[in-house]
Write the structure tokens for this entry.
Amino acid sequence: MNTTTTIPVNRDVKAELKRQAAEMRQDFARRGTLVINVLSSPGAGKTSLLEATAKHWGDQRRMAVLVGDLATDRDAQRLAPFCPVEQLTTGGACHLEIPLVQRGLEKLGTDDFEFLFIENVGNLVCPASHDLAEHLRVVLLSVTEGDDKPAKYPKMFRTSDVVIVSKMDLLPHVPFSVEAAIADAHMIQPDMTAFTVCSLTDDGIADWCKYLDEQRQTLLAANTVKKTASQ
Amino acid sequence: MHEASLVRSLLRQVSDLLIAHNGQAVETIRVEMGPLSGVEGPLVEIAFQQLVNDTLCRGASLIIEEVPLSAVCRDCGVEITIERFRFRCTACDSPRVQVTGGDEFHLMDVDIQTKEKTRPTQAAL
């Protein structure tokens, strides 16, 4: 005689992936690697921002990039002259997940980077739901997009730490209000740090790089506190 | 559309529960989602219909419960419901609100058919 039994679960479907991501994040922190997940819609300038960042630092910082793409390795080719880079081809999938990142890390070989950037697939929806073990989530918004984007993609902006308004050189030619876009982002995420950049002319890149240095120092300081506490 | 990969993960977890509880079949899977879950109900439904029959959960039905986006104000402590993604306390207008629900895709519970009264194995806990 069959009977029906209700099994209570009440667990996030992504609980296991989140646990893995949290563990990796701690490992990165212990090794002194600040991990930055870079997100935007297609063509907002993620690769250009990373190119400008790598050029600004030259050999003063050890940075690497894992770059997600649906089909090609064009972004990886663009970045290869400046820093170690590995392509993560998703085969059509709209976002990156932890196992792909782990595979990319293995291919990078060494793990003594000060900064690891994960350039996500261009998409403001799906990648918002996937923790890639990052310490910082950065969303780019170019001035050729609408300044009402934050309110249209609340999950992406709510889960991000930084908003970067990109392609500032085009601002005189488009009806985009930087103030409105940042105010919109702050309505959704009040703690968000905002930058304006033009990667082609290097405008704003020094401030962005200085911020990354500060964030890494904060990460290292937290390590020191933990070590002291455990002694 | 990343719903398919999440539904695949959901079906794997439910299949594991079925095995762990020594069940015969899965009857009902109940999930909960909200405005910041990052998944759309109709897309989850379509992915479920396409994938369910290739798993141990074949024949199961899916019940989706939509929950509001809830939060608690970190300044005045009031519990609020967030409408239209306006992350402000409705009582004191503080922007310091902590989301407490409606931002995850939760597996709530599962009805399974068993031969007799089930006793979960260690693996199910």
In short: The interface with chain A takes residues 1-2, 5-6, 9-10, 13, 17, 21, 23-24, 27, 31, 35-39, 85-88, 95-96, 99, 103-118, 120, 124 of chain B (CB under 8 Å).
